[in-house]
Amino acid sequence: MASFAKAAFTLATVLAVGWALSAHAQEYNEYDPSAVTPGSIPNFPFRDCNTTNGAYRLAPVWRPSGSNTYCFKIQVSQDALSCTGACCSADLHKIEFNVSSSCLVAGASVVATVNGVRTRVGATLDKAPAGPVGSAVLRLTQLGLDTTTAQDAEVCLTLKTNRGGQGCTTLEQLCSSPGFPAGTCTAAMFDVACDCCPVSQAGQALPPPPPVIPPVLRPCDVCIAATIVPPANDVRPYRYDSATCAAI
Ligand SMILES: *[C@@H]1O[C@H](CO)[C@@H](O)[C@H](O)[C@H]1NC(C)=O
Ligand SMILES: *[C@@H]1O[C@H](CO)[C@@H](O)[C@H](O)[C@H]1NC(C)=O
């Protein structure tokens, strides 16, 4: 009896611990490096998902917004070129940017806002577990945007160094997009299930074209000054007086 009770207790303990472990693994699956094979997915977003299918993309140009802050606009398109099936109507759960691992500095951080409101969960700079050595992402998760609320939503990132002043402060430093001009950021937009992850880019606005100085058109004070002088050989002299002249 005593040994039966002990065995039952042991079994219950094993079950409880096993359950707790699996619940833990489930909850943190996304971030658990042991759940994926390192280096198994060579390309951003370093996940097994469809990078061309989805309603959400970055508008092509980001804007600087002062003090190491940069803002991106989200565009929603549900046309046949952008998405098919469930990816067209799925909510926008998470955005990941392809970033330079040199920005992963202890104490350095990124504050993210959506339409001026801080994201529920802080933005995280992280290694990409399934990506090649040196790959890293900036993750903004639990966004809770849908195809209506995401349209034109503005996502701003404030890049903060650590106390020692180390860390990235510009998108030229943060964003890794080989083949694109410096400061171009590549992002993937995920649904909750992470099946759809359309990848898009946003770059720096081109410098404004040199200003075209319009010719100054102002009324002239004197345009032509003329004096009428009788010719030397005055064949048929005729003289106008002012009144006749004005009447012609
Ligand atoms: C991704 O989705 C597109 C439809 O938008 C489809 O044509 C393509 O086959 C999908 N790719 C994969 C790898 O599932
Ligand atoms: C993502 O960044 C890595 C460097 O970490 C780079 O090799 C890769 O080409 C980038 N991918 C995209 C799609 O920009």
From TrEMBL:
Residues annotated as domain Pherophorin: 44-198
Leader peptide range in chain numbering: 1-25
InterPro entries: Pherophorin
Domain of life: Eukaryota
A Pfam family: DUF3707
Keyword vocabulary terms for this entry: Signal
Keyword Signal: yes
Record's protein name: Extracellular matrix glycoprotein pherophorin-V7
Organism: Volvox carteri f. nagariensis
Gene label: phV7
